[in-house]
């Protein structure tokens, strides 16, 4: 019977035209729900590393940090300011840099000066809480030898110098 039915030509004409209403459907709530399901969470706070040996010059510091989770991170926001013992330390200039890597070399710093650093991670969902703050110190400037005060004899020499740093230097190494 099916074979006979399929051999027949069928003419399907609608006797009346369909009357459709134009409706605008608001799917913004559904879109929001769908986006929230697929959205990545804001990252966790990064962990800033303590200052590494030989990571400083008189005018620069290399700061490193890590992210101990599988969070998706687009970039990092590194903030720093000089450490001050004065009452108005909150008014110190705070600097912010956007960085793609988990390290950054900051230049144009003052010699023999402490700087406080903290970092946050960013992705499409938002910004992480800041890391703990870490204090890094730039290397002191080389001292200036006072040529007019140098004295010597057969078995000894007197060499005088002065520091060009604002903060006191812990020690000096004299090489002959």
From TrEMBL:
Domain of life: Eukaryota
Gene3D superfamilies: Immunoglobulins (2.60.40.10)
Gene field: Fsd2
Domain (Fibronectin type-III) ranges: 46-142
CDD domains given in the database record: FN3
Name of protein: FSD2 protein
PANTHER family: E3 UBIQUITIN-PROTEIN LIGASE TRIM36-RELATED, FIBRONECTIN TYPE III AND SPRY DOMAIN-CONTAINING PROTEIN 2
InterPro entries: E3_ligase_FN3/SPRY (IPR050617), FN3_dom (IPR003961), FN3_sf (IPR036116), Ig-like_fold (IPR013783)
């Amino acid at each position: 019977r099916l074979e006979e039915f399929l051999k027949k030509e069928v003419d399907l004409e609608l006797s009346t035209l369909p009357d459709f209403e134009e409706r605008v459907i608001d799917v913004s709530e559904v879109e929001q729900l769908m986006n929230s399901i697929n959205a990545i969470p804001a990252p966790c706070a990064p962990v800033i590393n303590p200052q590494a040996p030989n990571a400083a010059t008189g005018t620069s510091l290399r700061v490193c940090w890590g992210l101990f989770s599988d969070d998706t991170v687009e970039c990092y926001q590194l903030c720093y300011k000089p450490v001050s013992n004065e009452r108005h330390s909150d008014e110190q200039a705070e600097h912010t840099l956007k960085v793609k890597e988990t390290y950054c070399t900051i230049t144009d710093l003052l010699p023999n000066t402490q700087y406080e650093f903290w970092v946050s991670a960013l992705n499409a969902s938002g910004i992480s809480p800041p890391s703990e703050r870490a204090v890094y110190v730039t290397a002191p400037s080389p001292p200036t030898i006072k040529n007019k005060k140098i004295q010597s004899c057969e078995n000894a020499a007197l060499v005088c110098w002065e520091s060009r740093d604002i903060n006191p230097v812990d020690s000096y190494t004299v090489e002959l």
